[in-house]
Amino acid sequence: GSELELLAWPIVGGSKQPKKVETKVGNDLQMNLYKQPWVLETSNFRLFNINPSKDPTKKFENVGPSVQFKMRNKTGEAKEYLNYMVPVDRDGALYYLSGVRSSPAEEFRYLYVPVDDAGGINRFMAYLQALSDGPLLREIAGKENFTGAQLPSKGAAQFNEAMIRLTGLFVKSGMGGVIEQVEKNVPLDKRKDVKELYVRVLQQMLGAVYIDVLTKEGVDVSLGVDEKKAAFFDAASAAIGSIGSYGSPVYFQLSSFVHHQASGLQIAKAPGKNLVYPGCAMLILGVFLMFYAPQQRLWAWLEPTEDGVKFVLAGHAIRNKIDFAKQYDQIQAQFNRVLTG
Length: 341
Known about the structure:
The chain has 341 residues and is of the alpha+beta class. The chain contains seven helices and 14 strands.
């Protein structure tokens, strides 16, 4: 029953500001996201996550609290998520981790959300929202001359719309979706050139949008961007390229919590309990008979013949065969005395 406060950052458009969501571990929260019903099923909260340390001087390190939950859509399908509250270091840069999987049998696949200069994900979300903002993309495409040549107004407009569609395809399906689109619609002999063109144009568009985001933050980009901001651009673009398979319309960031430690007690009713003890007694009796009671069999066969009746006697024992052989001889002798008079 730990109390959690989450920030729901929109992924597929809509408001640019996160929505505060309060829930408890074990509760199911009904949500209406983009006119679609969703259910947030919070299943676990961990205050500590002890993992092997990359620092050779330490064996283990605590990567902080995490929350595990499912997002279930209106069809009943759900994906499970594991989001960490504190950013982790990866190759010298900080990232917020969000694991996702379709079933408990799978391992979590992680989305790495880069941390901005302020230590949050505001810049990443602003960049993501800008790539889904059609009017903004048209404005940027109109100001930039991506072709490097003067085109007629109609041709320039068509080229800009193609760039916007290409950007939308990248956000929706990643670079794999762009390559698939080329392989599906472009003849084989022209695919290489078209792929190179798409990648170059897409990089230019993404870069222009990122510069616009930095400018609106108040960052001076007149002399370009420094190495740290360039690395952020690469990491953010890589994350956006894989966000199409994330499965949730929002990204939940754990902002605060009230941890409640508790132990669970499960009480169950068993209507068939009255049959358990007689069943156990019969089981014990069966085991006793199987190991200690003699298991012997005798067969007698009577067959009419011309001279009278033919009598055949046979026997078998699973254990103590020597003692059974003596008993069998005695039984056979008794039959011989009776039958022969």
